[in-house]
Amino acid sequence: MSKPAIPTTPVHWRFLAGGTETLRLTLSGAALLLGGGMVLAGVGSMVAALDGRANLPGCLASAAASTAVALLLAALAARWLGRRIGTLAGLALLTCFGGLAGRIAPAEMLLCLSVTTAMAAFAVANVPGRLPLVDRPWPRLLFYAATGTSLLLAGVAGPVLIGAGCLSFALLCVDTRSLRFFAHLPGLALFGLLAVGCSVAPESWLWCSGSSHIATGTAIGWPGSLTHTLGRLATAGLPWTPLAVLTAALGLHGGHHATPIWRLFGCWLAATVAIVATGVFHSQIGVAVSLPPLVVIAAAALAQVPAWWRRMGLARLAFLRKVCENRRLS
Fold it and tell me: Is the residue at 1 inside a domain?
């Protein structure tokens, strides 16, 4: 009789493969995220009321954009990793330091929404999982519409960061199907129309960024260094940054970097940080665009905190029982 195969991944690292629950965001999860967005808007209103320099419309717009990003990110993560990790990813985005009380400007959050939409459209058509890939025209149209919107919001920074994340994933997977995803004439035509509109009246489209500094970093004195970019991202992701670092370390050691969905999130995060660290674009862009993959990575560990806590409690009880038995015997 043959021996059962030994799993190559340790048991306490299997959580990175996602849960077995429903692979979609439930209505209760969406309602929870909407409630969190309303609380976030209320906090922003209180901050604006207490601080005369705060912009109440800006805080509310940032909270609305953060809620939209949280809902989209939760649905994206739930499709591959289960509804629990998806819901926790959305809540982590709403409760991190960067998402609280309008810490990130409305323009940057709108840019984050457009980038997340483009990456989600790319994922449903190219990243395999337990659900079949969507082989229809609408993901490509949505991808180019979101990419064109990012062009209107942040100039070339949006399309460059989106393209870097998608192309790095395609090259890492050596998948020609992902490269064929970009060859879509109606989508390219839509992107061309948006690009023409941005070039005809650039100031009318970039007004929401507050100034043209959103597209450049070195021109206003922001250091183009890796440590500076990582420091700002780590601060914006608090208090979930340590969990993200722990999950990334376990995932790399356990071989989960070969999982397609984690490979996409890793390429999204790494490509954005690498490009922004050169100083070509404003560092705040890197923070806003990198927050979604960061909180998803953290949510995978956050979903296992109760199990880890329970395991630690049982280990402590076993240790105390052993100590008491030794004292009794002595």
Answer: no
> 326 is written with which tokens?
């030794």
User: Is-contact 49 56, C-beta < 8 A?
Assistant: yes
pLDDT by residue (tens digit) across 142-175?
999 999 998 888 888 889 999 999 999 988 887 7
Looking from the CA of 245 toward its CB, the CA atoms found within 13 Å total: 10
* Contact criterion met (CB below 8 Å) for 45 and 56: yes
DSSP string for residues in 12-70: GGGGGG--SS-SS--HHHHHHHHHHHHHHHHHHHHHHHH-TTS-HHHHHHHHHHHHHHH
* Total count of domains within the chain: 1
Q: Show the domain range for 144.
A: 19-325
Q: Which distant-in-sequence residues (6+ apart) come within 8 Å of 277 by Cβ?
A: 224, 225, 226, 228, 229, 230, 286
What does the block give as tokens for 26?
A: 């439930």
Residue 321 is which amino acid?
R
Q: Distance from CA of residue 181 to its chain's centroid?
A: 22
CB 88 within 8 A of CB 57: no
Phi-psi sector, 293: left (phi>0), alpha (psi -120 to 50), beta:
alpha
**Tokens 């993560």 -> residue:** 77
What is the length of the chain? Answer: 330
What's residue 161's pLDDT? Answer: 93
Residue 319 is encoded by which pair of tokens?
A: 């240790």
Percent of the chain with pLDDT over 90: 15
